[in-house]
Amino acid sequence: DEPVVWDPFNFCELYKISGNNPDVAWLREAELKHGRMSMMAVFGIIVQEGGVRDPYWAPVDANWATAPSQCPALAWGSLIAFIGLVEGKYAEGLYDLWNGQTDKRTPGDYGWGKSFLSDDPVAADKMRLKELKNGRLAMIAFAGIAANHFIPGALPGCMYS
């Protein structure tokens, strides 16, 4: 059975037109990565605005939009170096995903998440689907929080700015 896919603009078929367009495997990799980042971002916003603070970062504003400008340059340099190391380590196989070859690595698998998945394939697939849906929700939530911050009143009742 093929899964039902909602793709009204046929983005999943673009790779058939030209090699300049990514395969669905590449798109899934990007969706999972952005979903994971959004889940962490939304969680961080809720925690920070909820008053939970790390004493080391106490002088930095709790507002997510103004805090980056208050971080020292060394912190930014360390963060960018760490992100570069992580991205470099897990970039292997990305070109293959662009071309739709998933034999080296499945989209979103960085090799350290096996302990979070069940040995049962059905349960593991359900958990992967939950992660995908939660990531999509977090991307929408972050977009809403950002809209509410930059366009005051965009989301009536939203307590995060």
Automatic annotation (TrEMBL):
Amino acids binding chlorophyll b: 36
Gene3D superfamilies, sorted: Chlorophyll a/b binding protein domain
Classification via InterPro entries: Chloro_AB-bd_pln (IPR001344), Chloroa_b-bind (IPR022796)
Location of the protein in the cell: Plastid, Chloroplast
GO molecular function: chlorophyll binding
GO annotation, cellular component aspect: chloroplast; membrane
Pfam family, one: Chloroa_b-bind
Gene Ontology BP annotations: photosynthesis, light harvesting
Keywords: Chlorophyll, Chloroplast, Chromophore, Photosynthesis, Plastid
Binding site for chlorophyll a: 6, 31, 34, 130-131, 134, 136
PANTHER family named among the record's database cross-references: CHLOROPHYLL A/B BINDING PROTEIN
Protein name stated in the entry: Chlorophyll a-b binding protein, chloroplastic
